[in-house]
Amino acid sequence: MRKNFTTVGFVLFLFCINASYEALWGQQFQSATGATYRVFLRDKGSEKFERGSALYARTEALFTPRALIRRLKVLPPENILTIADAPLFAPYLDSIRRTGATLGNGLRWRNYTLVTCSTIQLEQIRRFSFVRAVQPCTARLFPQGFSSRAESLEKSSISAAMQALKSISLQDVNCGTLQYGDSRRQLQSINIPPAHELGIAGKGVVIGVMDAGFRWRAQTSLKGASVLAERDFIQNDTNTANEQKTYYSDLPDQDEHGTKVLSILSAYSPQNLIGAAFGASYLLAKTEDLRYERHIEEDNAAAALEWLEAQGADIVNASLGYGTFDQPDESYPYSELDGKTTIISRAVNDAAARGVFCVIAAGNDGRNGYRTINAPADADSAFAVAAVRADTAGATNFSSRGPRGDGALKPDIAAQGDTVVVASPTGSEYQVGRGTSFSSPLMAGGAALVLSAFPELKPWELRRLLTGTASQANAPDYVLGYGIANVFAALRRAGTIVAPELVSYPMLGVQRVGISALPRGMSLRATLYVRYADEPNYTPIDLRPFLPSAFYLADLAMTRFAGKAAEMYAIVDDGIQSRRIPAMGAVMLRPRVSSVPCGIQAASLPIEKPSDVREGIVPSPVSSEAGTATLLLATSEVGGLDYTIYSTFGSSILSDTVQVTSGISTIPIRVSNLARGVYFVQVRYNGTMQMFRFIIN
Q1: What is the greatest pairwise CA distance in the chain?
Q2: For 636-658, what is the mean pLDDT?
Q3: Which of 336, 405, 443, 609 has the largest CB neighbor count within 10 A?
């Protein structure tokens, strides 16, 4: 992975000044406590893998409902779970522990566990009848696999999993027009902003990120990120930030690289850094140990892929790579970077076979010429990403070149990997970085946008859309693969684009509700289904287009809500495909509240006033006995509004700041203390200033 890090020099410097410390830890596999080995087991126990068995129940418990549903996209129901997914047989592991050995990560798909033990303990372990083979972790993985007859997961379990996701949620999104700052260029390099403008930011997609650590809670732009879970596969705990323990201490910059990678995906800091898929959810896995380059890091990453897959990751980004290792570990000859030999590349292929789209950094060895791709970028199923310059005029000199070890095409695609805006690990500072480590998360975020709009896509379909719309789609090469990605073009080719969230904002007497959509043809039928609080059934309401904008909306009388939230979903049909928004369940939308998907430009919202209504104070004249008047304004974006009332002599009488929503805002103004006469109200909102005259009688 060090070949993909931009902080290599600093790490090497630390290695030098901590020579004695590293010497101690460098012997951890050959120390008095023993070396670390891969212990391969013969089976998962004698228990039959079938529904109703304890083994089946233990296996099913490892998976989230969304993981099972994602698998349904690529596997038949009868093969949704197999014996390869089952946990390692606990009695076997207990027997190994009783020798005094220490167990590390277990790998279900390949049926082995990491074991640290002395040579005497190792001989005891070898004699167990359930042990098929043993090899030191310094060695390359045996050319073996684990397979057994697939048993079925009954459809009733699949239905139960789907039902678990059919929750009704309260939609609450209001970011307004995105202010990218300097990060706009990297997003534009693969044409992401037009997708954001439709309200597509990764909602509904879970992205797994494997790296060296994440200090996301300390970075301002990441505090709002939706992190579902995190796990450290080095120390086997749930803290992926730097740790200082009596037996282990991370290097000072251990979590720097991962924090930067995550920020390219999920940061949200207007004018500083907007992530490519800031609306997605994340799973974080710490697998890479900066103290050395060893095969056990591959084992860590393989274990992390199993965890990420079981937790329901749709996409995994890995900005890491392997090929050459520190002694005494065996390095890979380039011929073995053939897409199916290395430990980590096999794990990537295994995850992809279960429906995970794996986006991998190609590597930073391009200065050494061609045939410099790393593993797991070489994997058959890896979507290997090369780096292009900030001006997108060509590849960077460091971006690794193909072909891979067997002559097959790699890399697969390219994105900006130079002068990429990233977040520093702490505070609110931002930097620029370079490396395929940063082009990879940019591409993973772009892929998440396509999957957010088209969640039914299988990994190979998503790959075909992205490569088929890239700049070299018809003439791929060993430098940029199929070329620079074009995310919005991939969305357009996929079909009718519909944002995964509803649009809702108040108008005069109505709540305007609907979708943001870009149809593939001239005909699009969109229907909103509404169930008010006092009704047992949903009522279908046609959504009408507001051309030339991308909105299909209906106006719901405010009185029908009776002050309560209503359940809603929409069905969109373009004559070729039908789509449901949200994909499952329904959302609760409240009256007089704005709910506009992040990214939609405020100016594009259809906000029109009736011809007989003017902005300003209504009614005018207004009687002071009425107590209040209403300041009526078309407010295109959620935000703060300041107003000040002046007398005809210019004296300030009353001022206040209120929060407004998207739509037509009606702001109550207290007039009971005002004498008869002419007044003016000055309004400051969204960078503009207006002045309105009104009369008290």
Answers
A1: 101
A2: 87
A3: 443
- Residues 109 and 302: their CA atoms lie apart, in Å, by 9
**Is-contact 335 303, C-beta < 8 A?**
no
Count, residues in the chain: 697
Task: Write out pLDDT tens, residues 399-441.
Answer: 999 999 999 999 999 999 999 999 988 778 899 999 999 999 9
Task: Say how far apart CA 514 and CA 533 lie, in whole Å.
Answer: 19
Which of 174, 189, 173 is closest to 438 using CA atoms? 189
Residue 536 per-residue DSSP state: S
d(Cα 578, Cα 573) in Å, to the nearest integer? 4
Among 482, 475, 552, 561, which Cα is nearest to 513's? Answer: 552
Token couple for 541:
């309401």
Residues in contact with 94: Cβ distance below 8 Å, sequence separation at least 6, in sequence order: none
Backbone dihedral region for residue 355 (phi beyond 0: left; psi -120 to 50: alpha; all else: beta): left
C-beta separation of 451 from 357 below 8 A? yes
Condensed to tens digits (0 to 9), the pLDDT of residues 89-114 reads 999 999 999 999 999 999 999 999 99
- How many angstroms separate the CA atoms of 511 and 555, rounded? 6
**DSSP per-residue string spanning 450-519:** HHHH-TT--HHHHHHHHHHTSTTTTS-BTTTBT-B--HHHHHHHHSSEE-SS-EEEE-SSEEEEEEEEE-
Question: What domains sit in the chain, N to C, each tagged with a CATH number?
Answer: 33-154 (no CATH), 205-239+253-494 (3.40.50.200), 497-604 (2.60.40.10), 616-696 (2.60.40.2550)
Of 59-68, 174-183, 244-253, 501-510, highest mean pLDDT: 59-68
Whether the predicted pLDDT of 392 surpasses 70: yes
First to last CA, the chain: 76
Quick check: pTM over 0.90? no
- Nearest CA to 666 out of 643, 686, 645, 687 is that of 643
- For residue 422, what are its two tokens? 């990233």
Task: Decide: 273 and 262 in contact? Cβ < 8 Å.
Answer: no
Neighbouring C-alpha atoms within 13 Å toward the C-beta of 322: 34
Q: What was the pLDDT predicted at 428? A: 80
pLDDT score, position 14: 41
Q: Answer whether residue 31 shows pLDDT above 80.
A: no
Give the C-alpha separation, 553 to 502, whole Å: 10
Helix (H) or strand (E) holding 14: helix 8-17
- The model's pLDDT over 348-371, given as tens digits with 9 standing for 90+, comes to 999 999 999 999 999 999 999 999
Whose structure tokens read 């051309």? 547
Please choose, from the candidates 391, 482, 490, the residue with its C-alpha nearest in 3D space to the C-alpha of residue 447.
Answer: 490
Q: Helix, strand, or coil here: 569? A: strand
Percent of the chain residues past pLDDT 90, beyond the cut: 66
Does residue 486 surpass a pLDDT of 70? yes
Question: How do beta strands 206-211 and 281-286 pair?
Answer: parallel
Average pLDDT, the chain: 88
In whole angstroms, what is the distance from residue 318 CA to residue 4 CA?
10
Place of tokens 């083994």: 55
